[in-house]
Amino acid sequence: MIKVNKNRSNRLAGAPLISVIVPVYRAQLTLASALLSVKAQAWSEKNLEIVLSIDDAKDYRWAKTYWSNITFCYGHAPATGAGAARNRGILAASGRYLAFLDADDIWQDGYLDALYPAAKKHGLAFGKTVIHAHDGTFLMQLGDHLTTHVGSGQLRLKLEDFGALPGSFHPLMRRQLTPFFLKYPAQDVFHALEAIAMLGNDAPQVDEARYQLNLGADSFTASAGFSHRIDRSYRQMIQFVRSGQTQVPHRQQLRVIRALQKRRQWNQRFIRDGDKFASFYHFLADALA
């Protein structure tokens, strides 16, 4: 059972334009920075709702001091995982569009202003992912290696790019197009793949919209056995796609499977050669240099 803590009259009074889904787990030290980055977008609270999907049973009511238009939602038990927390956030959200932000990451200035016009036009749009190491230093930027453009010169993020660039890309999308997340590692990757596949083979990527992914010292990508768990997850995802258990259309299934297979190859390289790197993203930055 999902518990949503929000006054019903507020939900019916007028839906915000965008809901920001933030899964929250042991985020007492990082959530304030995430909230401040949303506040820095300079959107009104009428048009922007933050949904905190609490997954550690802690008290985060203090977040209201940063943004008053917050919906809190809770699962039936703590530590259900990021996918389940994001799904609760989707169900609790009121906005016409959904954006996603992890509690230890931030949006760089101008993120929403840059991303929203493309999402409004196409239903789905992505920014670039800027990755910072746990000490705050810049590590790499995902998206700079893409070269495919349409006639207008707009950069497009294709299904194949998820195999060539095995990192996370974060969408702003119309809520009617949003699939639910799987409850497996790398579920955010599959969510993006599935959403793009539902629309076709690609989606706009906006150069000016920068999502900053902050690697913690105890980041999942730095934990022991990370790539083994991810590899098992990718194998399960491939099985789900092949058996028709996802919303990936039949005509796009082979492209999605190939992207997942290439991500498995990256992980196998990391399993073989990654012991000298602090995290998978350190390995990837070195490999793409």
Summarize the structure.
With 289 residues, this protein is α/β, with parallel strands linked by helices.
Explain the overall architecture.
The protein has two domains: 1-104, Spore Coat Polysaccharide Biosynthesis Protein SpsA, Chain A (Alpha-Beta Complex), CATH 3.90.550.10; 108-289, no CATH class. With 289 residues, the protein is of the alpha/beta class. The radius of gyration is 18 Å and the shape is globular. It has helices at residues 8-13, 31-39, 82-92, 111-122, 161-164, 187-199, 226-242, 253-273, 280-288, and strands at residues 3-5, 18-24, 48-54, 70-74, 97-100, 106-107, 124-132, 138-142, 156-158, 171-174, 202-214. Mean pLDDT is 91; it is low at 1-12. Strands 1, 2, 3, 4, 5, 6, 7, 8, 9, 10 and 11 form an eleven-stranded mixed beta sheet that branches.
Q: What kind of assembly state do the chains in view correspond to?
A: single chain
Order of helices and strands: EHEHEEHEEHEEEHEHEHHH
Q: Helical element count?
A: 9
**Helix amount:** 25-40%
Radius of gyration: 18 Å
Mean of pLDDT: 91
Biggest β-sheet description: 11 strands, mixed
Q: How many structural domains does the protein architecture include? A: 2
Distance N to C terminus: 47 Å
According to DSSP, the number of beta strands is 11
Could you say which structural class the secondary elements and strand pairing correspond to? alpha/beta
> Approximately how much beta-strand content do the residues carry?
15-25%
Shape: globular
Q: Which blocks of ≥5 consecutive residues have pLDDT under 50?
A: 1-12
